[in-house]
Amino acid sequence: PQLGYTVAFMYSEDDTPQERNDIVVHTRPDFLRMAFEQASVMTVVMADHVALSIEARRVLFDQVERGVRFERLQNFYEMYMRRVPLGVISEAWFLENIDLRGKNFYLVIKRCIDLLLALISLPVILPLLPFLAVAIKLESKGPILFSQVRLGQRNKPFTIYKFRTMRTEQNDHAPTGISDSRITRFGSFMRKTRLDELPQVFNILQGSMSFVGPRPERPELAKDLAVVIPFYKQRHLVKPGITGWDQVSGEYHSPSAEDTYKKLQYDLYYVKNLSIFLDLSIFFKTIMTVFSRQGR
Questions:
Q1: Is the per-residue pLDDT at 253 higher than 80?
Q2: Distance between first and last Cα of the chain
Q3: Alpha-carbon torsion, ordered 74, 91, 228, 46, to 10 deg
Q4: Which of 4, 176, 183, 209 would be 203's cystine partner, CB 3.0–4.6 Å?
Q5: Within 13 Å, how many C-alpha atoms sit on residue 51's CB side?
Q6: In degrees rounded to 5, what are phi and psi of residue 69?
Q7: Host H or E run for residue 243
Q8: Cα 285 from Cα 294, distance rounded (Å)
Q9: What pLDDT digit, counting tens, does each position of 110-136 carry?
Q10: Exposure string (b/e) for 260-271, b if CB count within 10 Å is 16 or more?
Q11: Is the pLDDT score of 296 beyond 60?
Q12: How many CA atoms are closer than 13 Å to the CA of 154, on its beta-carbon side?
């Protein structure tokens, strides 16, 4: 409903007559025709895997004359939720929708923009480094920079650099949780303002990262996640980024399998819809997140 839609009814010949989440489920073609006559239906969303009887298909075909619009479930979900419905896609979806060769011009332009923004940002970043370094050292013991191996484009490992935001004492380097007690006070400030990400500008200059792309994950976690989550490896078709479509979605996603499942839906949406326009949208939404201090 928040997108302007009201569900009139559902139809499934494999089901029994019932209400599901207060939505009427019809199971017979005669009831389907009656439902169309009684409800002012404008759009029909159809699941690909559902086989309909000849009678039901005739009823649906008759609705074309009434101006009813038909949408495939995966297309409808992607259009309005801005993420890919992972549970209903297959290998064929990638063959039909992913064309990196056709994005060559975009990828060249994106790399040029990455280099230009990185070089422009250096005069701003370099004067800040001594002050951030002193603040980090005054609050807790340990190195100023934090480095870790992450998985990049085409599953190639690389070393990512960040300002250290956690205490080194009794730190087992487990994935960060919400309200993690290992995060220092200044570290929390850096995370919310994304200042801890500044050293990744050197990853961009190196070519292992971009400003915009799926966030890189640790190889050992990625290996485990690829076992339980379908198409997880396909997020590595593009360079990882400092910020991404998932990061500006308004949700916090941990490295757990459940959260990664949701995160992958945003990542695959980005991989499918690569464009300068989408990158700019993510970039400006990230700036809004920084000023509102909503980062984690």
A1: no
A2: 29
A3: 20
A4: 209
A5: 0
A6: -100, 135
A7: strand 241-243
A8: 11
A9: 999 999 999 999 999 999 999 999 999
A10: bbebbbbbbbbb
A11: no
A12: 2
Residues 166-169: contacts with CB under 8 Å, at least 24 apart: 167/140, 167/141, 167/142, 168/140, 168/141, 168/142, 168/143, 169/140, 169/141
Say if residues 269 and 78 touch (Cβ distance below 8 Å). Answer: yes
Closest-CA residue to 205 (of 270, 103, 112, 274): 112
Mean pLDDT of the chain: 90
**pLDDT band for position 14 (50/70/90)?**
confident
More confident residue, 21 or 11: 11
Predicted confidence band of residue 18 (pLDDT cuts 50, 70, 90) = low
Contacts of 102 (CB under 8 A, 6+ apart): none
CA dihedral 83, 84, 88, 94 (to 10 degrees): 180
Burial (CB count within 10 angstroms: exposed 0-12, middle 13-18, buried 19+), residue 142: middle
CB 231 within 8 A of CB 89: yes
Contact criterion met (CB below 8 Å) for 207 and 196: no
Evaluate whether 45 touches 71 at the Cβ level (below 8 Å). yes
Q: Do residues 76 and 7 lie in contact, with contact meaning Cβ atoms separated by under 8 Å?
A: no
pTM (2 decimals)? 0.85
